[in-house]
């Protein structure tokens, strides 16, 4: 069976028309139709059924698609491994990471890695935590830098470091000027139990951590606004729309909103590195994994 036929089958399975698929695999539309018909004859059962003007997978088609994706993924990883072996200073590393880590951790990891391997290329994807897991399991990336190590039987992960979380309040908030030690602003999370929280949407680990920490001190946070970017949340807090639990900004400029150290519960999130447990990494990705495990804590401490 030709790889182009498998790719065409998967493209149609993903919702592309036969005409669109033909363009993607650089074949004519009749040639793609004949290839899909041969594939159905090979497996001995229909793989698609027509719904309206489109095609959808039959149960047999869904089962074949699962294995076909694994086959394409294995082939592409093999090609990359051969390329890495023939060009040991080069290679290709696909990585997914949280939005909040794209402003400091990921760029610094790549910069320091490329000091020794300057010709390595990277394919970078940003997601919430659920998207990171999907990319790993789907074979789109080799590694994912997460905000909470995913609990999935097919994934393995290691902690990179713990990132402190601060209670962020508006500038005119009653807790904004509280200091319990010289130069250190502190507050209890319980002090804002009756206030409105600004949080990330469900699917982000920081949302789950916020709810867990509030639960530990005895209340369920009252959600006022939901967002997809930490800096958006920070801006909404600055506008006086609520409070939030957020990592400290990495900018050297002083934040416009007070960031208070939480004293009544350990407020932090675990930054981790994850990969598929039984999937051998190509050399370049394996080298980057080792580099990230070795240097991330130092980068965080800077």
How would you characterize the overall build of this protein?
With 302 residues, the protein is α/β, with parallel strands linked by helices. The chain folds into three domains: 3-81, Arc Repressor Mutant, subunit A; 89-161 and 270-301, D-Maltodextrin-Binding Protein, domain 2 (3-Layer(aba) Sandwich); 163-268, Periplasmic binding protein-like II (D-Maltodextrin-Binding Protein, domain 2). 40% of the residues lie in helices and 25% in strands. The protein has nine helices and 13 strands. The protein has helices spanning 3-13, 18-24, 29-43, 59-86, 105-116, 129-137, 205-216, 230-238, 283-301, and strands at 48-51, 54-57, 92-98, 121-127, 143-146, 155-168, 179-181, 184-187, 196-200, 222-227, 244-247, 259-262, 268-276. Strands 3, 4, 5, 6, 7, 8, 11, 12 and 13 form a nine-stranded mixed sheet that branches. A two-stranded antiparallel ribbon has the order 1-2. Helix 2 (18-24) packs across helix 3 (29-43) and helix 5 (105-116) packs across helix 9. The longest helix is centred in the first third of the chain and has 28 residues, at 59-86. The mean pLDDT is 87.
């Amino acid at each position: 069976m030709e790889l182009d036929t498998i790719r065409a089958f998967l493209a149609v399975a993903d919702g592309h028309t036969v005409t669109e698929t033909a363009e993607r695999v650089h074949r004519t539309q009749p040639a793609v139709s004949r290839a899909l018909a041969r594939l159905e004859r090979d497996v001995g059962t229909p793989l698609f059924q027509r719904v309206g003007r489109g095609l959808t997978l039959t149960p047999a088609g869904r089962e074949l698609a699962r294995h076909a994706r694994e086959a394409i993924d294995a082939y592409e990883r093999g090609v990359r491994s051969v390329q890495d072996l023939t060009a040991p200073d080069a290679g290709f590393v696909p990585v997914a990471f949280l939005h909040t880590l794209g402003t400091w951790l990921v760029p610094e990891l790549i910069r320091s890695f490329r000091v020794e391997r300057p010709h390595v290329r990277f394919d970078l994807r940003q997601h919430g935590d659920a998207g990171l897991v999907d990319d790993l399991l789907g074979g789109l990336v080799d590694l994912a830098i997460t905000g909470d190590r995913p609990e999935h039987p097919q994934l393995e992960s290691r902690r990179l470091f713990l990132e402190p979380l601060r209670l962020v309040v508006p500038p005119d908030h009653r807790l904004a000027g509280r200091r319990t030690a010289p130069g250190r602003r502190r507050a209890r999370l319980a002090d804002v139990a009756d206030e409105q929280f600004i949080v990330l949407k469900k699917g982000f680990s920081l949302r789950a951590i916020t709810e867990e920490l509030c639960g530990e001190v005895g209340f369920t946070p009252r959600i006022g606004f939901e967002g997809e970017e930490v800096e958006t949340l920070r801006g909404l807090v600055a506008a006086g729309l609520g409070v939030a639990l957020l990592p400290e900004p990495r900018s050297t400029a002083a934040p416009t909103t007070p960031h208070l150290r939480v004293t009544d519960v350990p407020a932090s999130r675990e930054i981790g590195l994850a990969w598929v447990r039984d999937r051998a990494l190509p050399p370049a990705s394996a080298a980057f994994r080792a580099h990230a495990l070795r240097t991330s804590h130092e980068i965080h401490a800077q």
